[in-house]
Amino acid sequence: MFVNLKKVVSGTGVSRIFGLIRDISTTNLMGASIFHDIFVICLKIPNLFRRFFAEGALNQAFIPIYSEYEKAENERKTYAFINAVAGTLITILFIFTVLILIFAPAFIFLFAPGFYFDPFKQDISVTVLRIMFPYLSLISLVAFAGGIQNSHNKFSVPAYTPVIFNLCLIVAAILIAPMYEMPIFVLAWGVLLAGILQLLIQILPLWQIKRLPVPKINFKNSGLRRFLKLVAPAILAGGIIQINLLVDTIFASLLETGSPTWLYVSDRLIQFPMGIFAIAIGTVLLPTLSKLDLKNEKIKFIQSVHKGQRFVIFIAVPSLIGLFFCAEDLISTIFYRGAFTQIDVLNSSYSLMAFSFGLPFFMLMKVLTPAFFARKDTKTPMYVAMVSLLLNASLNYYLAFMLDFGHIGIALGSSIAALISVLILEFILYKDGFIKIKSVFNRFNIMILFSSLSLILFLNFYTNLTNFIEFSQVERFLYLSIEVIISIIIYGAVSRLILRKPIQTLFE
User: Fold this and answer.
1) How far is CA 141 from the centre of its chain?
2) What is the dihedral of CA 364, 20, 239, 146, to 10 degrees?
3) 327 CB contacts (<8 Å, ≥6 apart)?
4) With 60 as the cut, is the pLDDT of residue 462 above it?
5) Model's pTM, two decimal places?
6) What does the pLDDT read at residue 485?
7) Which of 160-174, 187-201, 240-254 is predicted least confidently?
8) Are 97 and 195 spatial neighbours (Cβ–Cβ below 8 Å)?
9) Confidence bin at 37 (pLDDT 50/70/90)
10) Exposed / middle / buried, residue 444 (Cβ in 10 Å: 0-12, 13-18, 19+)
11) Rounded to whole angstroms, how far apart are CA atoms 148 and 174?
């Protein structure tokens, strides 16, 4: 598993770096203006449904069943299954996309009511959504292709595929959009082009493993019927999680101009460790667990989940500390240029600090949910997601509006909801015997405690001595590099000293 994890981490790491460059390019072009607010919210809509149809449901139901077909080594039945799934998926996506294109104004009202009642904002939002929304169909098929490849331990192409999306938007934002009066439309077309290119590059890898689907409508296929039975609660679970994002978007659109952009920028930095490590290990863990026979290999199942949790905690805790103490340093270095102002830096850093408290729990969710889906239990994550939805909506309203925390309240509400969701999932897995609780005073926990304290002491000292807002761009980059490098050395050295063996042995 560790070898496959390194492949996914490297691919997603490169993708996240290009993603940051993309965000730098778009914020430099439009700042925290209404145009950037519209762009990030309209981009969230197809991405939300992408996770709804693809990562959030399809692969979690598809991979365990597909793994069974691969074990049986029946080529004819395997092909029939993936062809039936492909045909059903394409049909549903086509119908859904057409409906969105027709009823785009209604979706702007649903996702961003703050934009709907302003004729100027509504007109631009509807146009941008109609250009970008077909991206949903394209990227959902990309995710389906990635699920097939991951089941064959082919992780590299799916991991590197998002780089194409980021490159398309970088080129559009830097070279093409500035030449137009309304650059937001150029970015929208760039999203659509990225979806087409990402789908095209999946053809060769699927052909090489002899699993290139030929879409067919065949509801009599037994595997498809099992898939649909499993995918229904998975869709509800994934849908509820995405409704959480919808709730955040609705509240953000009702706040002052710039709030959606400030939340987007801070969320992007949270997504950096999420994408490189948590999503990567979840991607590897699901097919790994799905291949295990619980009757004879339950110990391996428990050990794999345990290793996944330790890996995430080892990364998430220093990431939380770093993002909290260095919020202003990071955002000013990465985004403080062009139309992105000093007040945008400060507001984005406040929401990043609020998001950072939830980072370990956002990451643990990506490890715990495969432990349910691999056992074909899609209902439990659905119920937990429902609790999270109700809690998140209540907290967002209370913190953002009642206590007047604004966009910071939305970030804080999401963090609290993630914490409670993880506690519920952990308790259920413990009750079912898939998590073993050992002594709290073990070497791993002591290592995390002292490594984290050492990191806090350094970052508190360093950030009190520096003022990144007043630095030049070159100085910001230099001082941030020093800050990051020393932080990694301190955390790694103290961990190694306490562990008394190579750190990677924890996860092998």
Assistant:
1) 18
2) -80
3) 266, 349, 350, 352, 353, 356
4) yes
5) 0.71
6) 95
7) 240-254
8) no
9) confident
10) middle
11) 35
Tokens of 420: 């409670």
Position 8 scores a pLDDT of 64
Nearest to residue 426, comparing CAs of 364, 383, 376?
Answer: 364
Can you tell me the distance from the alpha carbon of 39 to that of 184, in angstroms, rounded to the nearest whole number? 7
CB 366 within 8 A of CB 426: no
Residue 232 pLDDT greater than 80, yes or no: no
CA distance 248 to 260: 9
Neighbours of 401 (CB within 10 A): 15
For the chain, how far is it from start to end, CA to CA, in angstroms? 8
Ranges 36-40, 189-193, 489-493: which has the least confidence: 36-40
Quote the CA–CA distance of 34 and 361 in Å, as a whole number. 32
Task: List the chain domain ranges.
Answer: 2-437
Encoded amino acid at 215, one letter:
P
288 has pLDDT over 90? no
More confident residue, 326 or 367: 326
Structure tokens at 81: 């299954």
242 with 56: CB under 8 angstroms?
Answer: yes
- As a residue count, the chain comes to 508
**pLDDT tens by residue, 141-165:** 898 888 888 878 787 888 888 899 9
For residue 254, report the phi and psi dihedrals to the nearest 5 degrees: -90, -10
Tokens of 392: 């998140």
Kind and range of the H or E run holding 267 = helix 259-273
User: What angle do the packed helices 34-53 and 119-132 form, to 10 degrees?
Assistant: 40
Which token pair is 62? 């598809």
Averaged pLDDT for residues 450-476: 93
Cα atoms found within 13 Å of the Cα of residue 352, Cβ hemisphere only: 30
Question: CB–CB of 389/446 below 8 Å?
Answer: no
Instruction: Give residue-wise pLDDT tens across range 48-64.
Output: 776 665 555 666 677 77
Tokens of 167: 């490159």
- 235-239 contacts: CB < 8 A, separation 24 or more? 235/52, 235/53, 235/56, 235/57, 236/382, 236/385, 237/56, 237/57, 237/378, 237/381, 237/382, 237/384, 237/385, 238/51, 238/52, 238/55, 238/56, 238/57, 238/60, 238/385, 239/52, 239/56, 239/57
- Please give the full DSSP string across 21-82, using - where no structure is assigned: HHHHHHHHHHTTSHHHHHHHHHHHHHHHHHHHHIIIIIHHHHHHHHHHHHHHT-HHHHHHHH
Q: Summarize pLDDT for 12-25 with one digit per residue, the tens.
A: 678 778 888 888 88
